[in-house]
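Researcher: We're reviewing a set of sequences before deciding which ones to prioritize for further study. For each one, I'd like a predicted 3D structure that I can look through quickly. This is Hemerythrin-like domain-containing protein. If possible, include the structure in token form so it fits the rest of the review sheet.
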Amino acid sequence: MTSFLRRRGLLNVGMAGGLVLATPVAVSGVYARDAKKPGADEAAAPPEQLMRGHAILARVLLIYESGLRRAGQGEDIDPAVFARAAEITKGFIHGHQEKVEEELVFAQFKKAGRMVELVGVLAGQHAAGAKLTDKILAAAPQTRTKEPREAMGRDVQALIAMYRPHMAREATDVFPTLRHLVTAEEYAEIADEMMKRERQAVGADGFEKVAKQVAEVEQVIGIEDIGVFTPKS
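Model: Here's the predicted structure for Hemerythrin-like domain-containing protein, in token form for your review sheet.
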């Protein structure tokens, strides 16, 4: 079997994944900002769990960008590259991560009356992103043809243009503020609930599985080595 065919075969892996699992966290004190530093046997804090999801999405967006650029330059890019990236996004990001953000994180801001307009916009962008992903998934099989590929490219660019500032605002404004809105006990409960929902959605060791799936698509398209993005001086 040739190297290319072996790489294409990687795209046949089924969907499964989630965030890294850990044991429930136990913290003391009144506010989460006073909680002790998590140890190896404790749950990752909510922002850490959610930022891992951001990393998955950022890598998927890079797959889209690289694939479309190279296809536009005349390279024959397997449509399965785009389909697989969209499947991962639909299942893990829209189907799990964003629901967790809205129900466990954004709800705390609404309850506290903090950044209500911002979290409303972010939730609306989740819905818009899911619609764009459905369009990308539907168009992916036709991407060897110029017009369908260009139409999908416009949806991809819209997705990228929305999600990069979206992820930045969550990372700089929303996630760090969460710990100041709840007690340490509530903060730990949110972390535990995130893990519980993750297990229900994608099973144990889910993050590693999703990250591996993304890496397999990166390998097919030839961007698994991040050194390819280093500017040539």
